[in-house]
Design brief:
alpha+beta; Arc Repressor Mutant, subunit A; Udp-n-acetylmuramoylalanyl-d-glutamate--2,6- Diaminopimelate Ligase, Chain: A, domain 1; CBS-domain; 6-stranded antiparallel beta sheet; 15 helices
Length: about 450
Amino acid sequence: MATKHEQILQYIDQLPVGEKISVRQIAKDMLVSEGTAYRAIKEAENKGYVSTIERVGTIRIDRKKKENFEKLTYAEVVNIVEGQVLGGRTGLHKTLNKFVIGAMQLDAMMRYTGAGNLLIVGNRTRAHEYALNTGAAVLITGGFDTDEQVKKLANDLELPIISTSYDTFTVATMINRAIYDQLIKKEIVLVEDILTELDQTVYLKNSDTVDQWHQFNAETGHGRFPVVDSHMKVIGMVTSKDVMGREKDLPIDKIMTKNPITVNEKTSVASASHMMVWEGIEVLPVVNQYNKLQGIISRQDVLKALQMIGRQPQVGDTFDDIITNQFEVISTDVKGEDTYRCNVTPQMTNYLGTISYGVFTTIVTEAANRVLRTYKKGDLVVENITIYFLKPVQIDSIINIKPRVLEVGRKFGKVDVEVYNEGVVVGKAMMMVQLIDR
């Protein structure tokens, strides 16, 4: 049976898009305390189908799919620009498909403005009115207000008109940054993208016996199954090693491994792969926040996903991409190990104008990754790293990175990395890494 918290989440999920939600009303409708209602609404917001806006309240919005991450709702825009809603609050749940900067004559501006757009403009009341009539929402910059008749029109058309204290350039930058960040998230493969769903997952109940394991083993050919209680909470994991030599009528909960390692749907595949390699696990149960079984992932699922990630172009560059994309091979020694060159750009420095610790770590890790690929194909997970900063490296410097493999085995590698600036060693790193085969 679902808990009160889960019932509230289901109730919110079934509300129509655009519906306003209040803690007091949810508590009254579901016969729960306001604290319970508040916690459920906050989780719904984290899951992406509720949005809370200052001075407006909480509204039900469309749950985003990965392919639509680059699209924003007007409610999200309000939060991004720290805006105030002047009118059209009932349309905050709608999604915009393009934003237009109104830095031109009115006639020219309207040629670029259409339904589903967001016009970013200053205190030009006629432009506000024209945009609303074409089906576009309006974002007023500079903290200006608009006429009452424009607010009434926004309410009638259910198109938001928003005011922000920021200038037009800053607002456009903030929205672009938000879209860019979402594009990066779009490319990160999560456990929910690859898991075997619950209706296709074979699992045992704590009341089952060893005989049931043998039946499932014969049907599926698999030897590892999660064990759940009467509430579908994962309480154990049972493998062929556990049942070997056991009586067939012996209860599963007597031989299972208790408190198994689990992951949730929002765990990244990279983190899951590290757990599997580190712990030597073939199958991981996927659970929700209440530890209820949602499905499973296998090592094969993870390896396929890692291969897919390797072939997939990154839409939005992370800082790691910005740093490693500058790597340039300048020489190769007799062992086939390359030396790389990299320019220290302003983005790579700290407030003192010297290369930051995080950037230096990324540089030496990437160098180790590249040199190990000449010995073995696959990915690496850093197990241990020791870094020595010998001299500061200032902005706009050119550094040379020389990685050297000390030892490489089937599942691990040791790499020494030296970093030079103008022929002088400025930093060193010693790394021990776990290797993940592809």
